[in-house]
Amino acid sequence: MNSVWNCFLLWPEMGEGAADHHDLLTTWRRMLLWGLPAVQGSVVLALLLGRGDTWDRLIDPWLYLAMSSVLVLSWLATRYRWRPLRQVTTLLTAGSAVFLNVKLLLIALLLEPQFLLPELLETLVWLPAVITWTMLTDLSRPVRRVLNWMMAGVLASSVLVVLRPVLGGAALNVDALRALIQINLAALVSLYGASYFLRRSDLLGRARGEQSVLRELVYTDLLTGLPGRVRLNEHLRELTVRGEPFALLVVDVDAFKVVNDTLGHAAGDELLRGVAQELQRLAPAGSGVYRLSGDEFVLLLPGADDHAAQWEARRLLTHVPTRPSLQVGMDITLSIGLSVYPEDATEPEELLRHADSAMSAVKCAGRRQVRRYQPQQDAATERFQVLARDLSLALTRQELTLRFQPVFRLRDLKPVKAEALLRWTHPQLGAVSPGEFIPVAERVGLIAPIGAWVLREACRSARHWGGATVSVNVSAVQLLQAEFPQVVQSALHDTGLPASQLELELTETAALYEDERAARTLRELRALGVGLSIDDFGSGYSNLSRLRALPITGVKLDRSCIQDLPGGPGGDFARALLEAVLGLTRHLPLDLTAEGIEHEAQLATLRDLNCPLGQGHGLSHPLTEQEWRALLGRWDDFRSVGAAAS
Ligand code: C2E
Ligand code: MG
Ligand code: MG
């Protein structure tokens, strides 16, 4: 039924839930559209079929044919939404107005009374038709003006007709007078009645439409459909005015930037919509979810204290990332900051700022946590902002350098490769650890240029190492960038380092195992001939069974796995784990490097188990390029001395 009705539609609907006034307007126009040709057709038919003197005089075949054709064409144009319709309407209305007015004027001045009535009747037929027809298009200003002038002309001509006897003409008969009154009434009613109705509903509709669009824009976030900052501020103000306690959670999506940068904006938007839905689903009754900006959401918990808010936050931390709709090929985690009214602040803006800085503190401390605002945490937020700001200058100001931590073949302690470790000496803050600034670089989108610089520097240096390999750390963000293999290739090409002397260390993430693009990038890298090893293996995401599926050449066992060797609290377990990993890497086969060797005993156990490679402060701290090359040189000397002695 609805679809049948829809095919009669003239103007596009406003979409579901369109306002009543709009429906009314559409119905009204629809009636006009279909009513007009019907009425006109029947009038013309009646005239054509009509008999008697009066009717015969009315049939002016050519004029009717022309006007009917024009009306039919205009009707079709209206029906099929022909674009220049407005201009045509204006022209047609103006033409009709001139024609009808001239005609009335001639009637008034020239015609004998007995011919008056048929001519007036003809006008009566066409005048309302023209006016009504113009209503079908939007009443544009020129059309409205023409119609007004036409109406004024009709009135003036009618007055002239009435005044004929006074002006010396023949007197009017009653029928003609009646026809004249009918003309004016019909025209007035159709013109002003319809135009008033249309204009009113148009104006009303537009005003209401604009108002609601404005409201929507101000109050609602278009992407997620959640209320935005303005609405949040209003609610906060209402609560603080009433003095009711509440808690605020600022929820930030950690992986958002990575998703946006690597999977594209559409995926980023999808993720935000998904998170918005999950937050709404998990929000307790009576609470409110808002989108603050970018990847920041707010959960407002009226009546909640610190304890209740922490509980809700932990619920979000555990449940949101596990939702199937948010499985985008990389770990989605949340960082949540919270502030409580009235303990933490009494002003809404301040509360929001506090919760936000608590969230930033979580980011600095490693994400995936909830933290309540603490006055001293402002310092942490400030540091994050300073690092983010200055990191973009670090490259150009040459504040970044590389250190090289030797990796030894444990059997004879030969230095076989070195891991390039990035160092940043900030002009005011001094040395900043990569553990602190790499996540900042990832978050603010600087990891790609910094990573490319590290690669180039490391390759340039390794050119002079006499065959020793350089290991370069690669962040998951870099790995997911489609152009990364290109970056590696040009670093190798430009520096002349053989691909076999470069190894990339990849941190274990879900993306590494689950993202098809990451797998493709790995294959491309492997095809270049560079080594690929899994860094920090055993510290978190380790997935032994899936190691086989990756085109990797090595594994670096995280220092947490060997710190209990041999006599630590979990010593036996650590040894068993090490044996298992060693067995596996021999079977696959993969290079195994034990990281973080600090003590003699650890080294002894590793050697005992035939672990091939090792690295750690117990063997060597990270060195400058010169120190590392000196170490390589000493080993060569030592070997040649050894060879000479034997
Ligand atoms: P990682 O790749 O696991 O690097 C090893 C880290 O452990 C280094 O810290 C190193 O100095 C430290 N380490 C080595 N031996 C020992 C030991 O015996 N005991 C202890 N406690 N620590 C030891 P660093 O240089 O602070 O680097 C931290 C992390 O920053 C690195 O972990 C790596 O994930 C990241 N990183 C460093 N440079 C880069 C880089 O150029 N690009 C990227 N994407 N990440 C980097
Ligand atoms: Mg590493
Ligand atoms: Mg490591």
Cα Rg: 42 Å
Indicate how many domains the architecture comprises: 3
| Small molecules (ligands, ions, cofactors) in the structure | ligand C2E, magnesium ion
Q: Could you give the count of β-strands?
A: 14
What's the main sheet like? Answer: 8 strands, mixed, barrel
Write up this protein.
The protein is α/β, with parallel strands linked by helices. The chain has three domains: 2-216, no CATH class; 229-373, Reverse transcriptase/Diguanylate cyclase domain (Alpha-Beta Plaits); 410-645, EAL domain (TIM Barrel), CATH 3.20.20.450. The protein has 25 helices and 14 strands. The strands form two sheets. Strands 6-7-9-10-11-12-13-14 form an eight-stranded mixed beta barrel, surrounded by four helices. α24 links the parallel β13 (591-594) and β14. α7 (141-162) runs antiparallel to α8. It is elongated and about 140 Å long. The structure holds ligand C2E and magnesium ion (MG) (2 copies). Residues 405, 421-422, 433-435, 438, 451, 454, 473-475, 505, 535-536, 559, 596-598, 615-617, 622 line the site of ligand C2E.
